[in-house]
User: What shape does this take?
Amino acid sequence: MANEKKIIECVPNFSEGRDLDKIEKIVNPFRGKDNVKLLDYSRDEDHNRVVVTVVGEPEAVKNAVIEAMGIAVELIDLRKHEGQHPRMGAIDVVPFIPIKNVTMEEAIALAKEVAKEASEKYNLPIYLYEKAASTPARENLANVRKGEFEGMEEKFKNPEWKPDFGPDIVHESAGVTAVGARMPLVAFNVNLDTPNLQITDKIAKNVRFIGGGLRFCKAMGVELKERGITQVSMNMTDYSKTALYRAFEMVKMEAKRYGVNVVGSEVIGLVPMQALVDSAVYYMGIEDFSMDQILENRLME
Amino acid sequence: MANEKKIIECVPNFSEGRDLDKIEKIVNPFRGKDNVKLLDYSRDEDHNRVVVTVVGEPEAVKNAVIEAMGIAVELIDLRKHEGQHPRMGAIDVVPFIPIKNVTMEEAIALAKEVAKEASEKYNLPIYLYEKAASTPARENLANVRKGEFEGMEEKFKNPEWKPDFGPDIVHESAGVTAVGARMPLVAFNVNLDTPNLQITDKIAKNVRFIGGGLRFCKAMGVELKERGITQVSMNMTDYSKTALYRAFEMVKMEAKRYGVNVVGSEVIGLVPMQALVDSAVYYMGIEDFSMDQILENRLME
Assistant: This one.
C-alpha cells in the first residue's frame, strides 16, 4: 500500500566557498531535473567549501552528482586552495544517505557505482568510506583524509592506502575524493544549567562512543555564553540504533554526579520523523506502534 | 516553500452495515476521482452502519460527499433500519477534519457548504454540530442525535431544535443528518498494572473533561482480561490543545494514589505526526522546535 518511491539523499562537499560563479556552475546540475531536488547549498568562505544537500530518486541523483563532479574537476584547482576545513579533493566527500524505501545496502551500491563511473570519467582516485568502506581503517573519514591534498602523494605510496577506484596517482588539480554511504546525521544538543565547560566536557566524553559511551554518538562540550550555560553538543550518527532519548537520558544521568541539571535540548537542522517518534514511543511506553499509524504516512501513499 | 496543497478528511457515517451491494454503491463516489482518496470504509453488522474515511482536496471531497449522500438518501430507508448504534439519518453524521494547510475555519465553512447544498438537493433537514455548531447545545453530537430517527418529528416541534439547513420536516426515509467539523481524534489508551476496573474507572473519571480533568479528553476504564490488567481508554478530541503526554502523565499521577503503575500505552489507528512530535519535544525539552525540521516534511515540498 505504501508509496514505494525510493528517495536517497546526497550531501557532496566541494572545495570552493568563495567564487560564487563557480559555485553556481557546480550546483547547476541539481536544478531543473526530474526526480532530483536541491534542498540546500551553503558555502563557507573561511572553510572555502560548499555543502550541497540534494534528494531524489537514486538513479537521477547519481547522474546529477556525477555531472556536478565533472564540473568541479574542471573548475577547482586544489593547488591554489586554502581554507580552514581539512580537504583532499575538489570534490572532497560524497556521502549517500538512505531516506525512504532505500536500504543501506542500496546506498552502498549506489556509492560504488558513482565512485566507479566518476573515477573512470575524470581519471580521479576515489576512496570508499563509512558504511561503503572496503577496510575498517577507511570507515572513518578523518583517517581517509589524513594528510589532506598535499599529503596524498605520500599516502598513495603505502599499499594499504591504494584508492578503491581510479588511478593510483593523485589527480593533479582535483586531488582525491571520498565517496560513501551513511545514516542521516541528527545534530542534537542537550543544555545544562552550569557555565562550567570542564564539567560539560567530561559529560560529553562519557556519553560519546570513543569515551566508552553510546555507539552512534559523537559529543563535545560547548559554551552558550549569552545564556551563561553550556551544552553537550552531539552528532547522532545512527538514530535508528542510538536513539535520541537514550543520549538525552545518559547526559542527564552523567550530569547528576556534578549536581548539574538538564534545562532543555535542541535539534539543529533536519531530523527524520522516526527519530522523534521513537522517543515519544519510549517515554509513553506505546506498545506495538507502527509508522503506518502516522496519518501523514498514510496520506503520502 | 512548503507544499501548499490543502488536505481535508471526511468521515461520513451511513446507516447501512449489512447490504454489501448498497454499501458499495454509497462508497463508489469516493473512488477513481482526482484529488480524492478513499482511505478506509468499515461496516459493522451489529451497528448496521458503515464508517467511511476519505481525504483529499476540499472542493473535490465536498463534491464526492454530496454525491454519496444522494445515493444514501435513495438506498437507505430509516423506517426499516435497526442496529445497536444510535442514528437519526440515512447519512447520520458527516464530520470534516482539517489535516494539512486547512484551518478549522475552512473546515467549518466547508461543512456549511455541504449542509446547504445537500439539504437543498435532497430536501434533507441538517444540523450543524461540533465546531460548526450554531448553538452551544448543538456542539455535542449526542445531544443533537438524542431521540434518534424515531424521535425527530417530536424534536422538530421544539423551536430550539429547528434544523440549521433544509426543511423543518424530517425526511420520510432518510431522517436527519448532522454535518460538522472537528479535530482528528486520537485513540490513546494507558495500561495499568491492576486488574481492578473500579480503580481504573475512578482514574478515568478524574482525567476526563466531564470529571474535572483535561479539556479535550474523553475516558473510561476498560478491562484487558487476557493480560489480567486494565486500561484508561481515552479519546483525545483535540491533541493540539490537550497533548498526549499530558494525559499520559495525568493518568500516572492519579494512579499513584492507588499504588497502581502505568505499564505502557497504545495508540489505536491513525495519529497525526504532530501529536507524537509534541510529546517527544516535551519529554526532551527540545527548544524552538519547528515541524519544518522534520525531514519528511521537507521532502513533501
Summary: Chain B is about 35% helix and 25% strand. The interface with chain A takes residues 7, 37, 39, 55, 99-100, 184, 191, 244-245, 248, 262-267, 269-273, 276-277, 279-281, 283-289, 293-296, 298-301 of chain B (CB under 8 Å). Chain B has a mean pLDDT of 95. Chain B has two domains: 7-181, 186-295.
